[in-house]
Design brief:
It is a single chain. It is built from seven helices and nine strands. With 232 residues, it is an alpha+beta fold.
Length: 232
Amino acid sequence: MINHRINTYMEYTMYDTLLQLPLFQGMSKAEFSEVIEKVKFHFHKFGDREVLFAQGATCDKLVFLLRGRLAAETVAPCGTFSFEELVEWPAIVEPHSLFGKRPCYKATYTAQGEVALLTIDKQYIYSVLDKYEVFRMNFFNLLSNKAEQLYESIWSIDAQELEGRLIHFIRSLCNTRRGTKVLRVKMEELANLLDDTRLNVSNVLNKWQEEGLVEMRRKEFVFHDVGSLRAL
């Protein structure tokens, strides 16, 4: 009797937790109970500054952030700059990287404080989870939203002044408009990327710093509210 109560409590606790995650929202209790019976859930804890996944490592599981936050840093293929943003819970880590020609992580994920993860092996997407329409539609919506974001990023650029090009460059690197973003690059390299002079780029960034839009550090530019750049 006691074990039954414990199992029931754990089931409902897990149900409430999973309901906060993008792929399980809308799933009924009956469907959830079936999922628990058929799918193996793996829980992990990480300490501050631990690296969870490295850029380029194979992505072979669904990864859900249950508690805490991650710093996701992507280094450009050319190696001249990198871009970091925070991933806040509840979130799913790179579901779009599970499939395709190169199923690997596009960023390195580092714990910011204590972090709790739930992972599900990729095989269960085919064998179990694909049978549930709610899960399937949620997964398709995630992939579609990512595709739409990339499409808008490509086609939103036009013949802009330097300030507009810089805004487009920063926003095109973002996976989300929320949270702090850190662009790590030398001023000279940034000017080359924008096809302009170092002086002009420096003038724009110094203007933004005076307006509280960016915090300039040595080889780093910190944006605490990328959404505010839209107003420019």
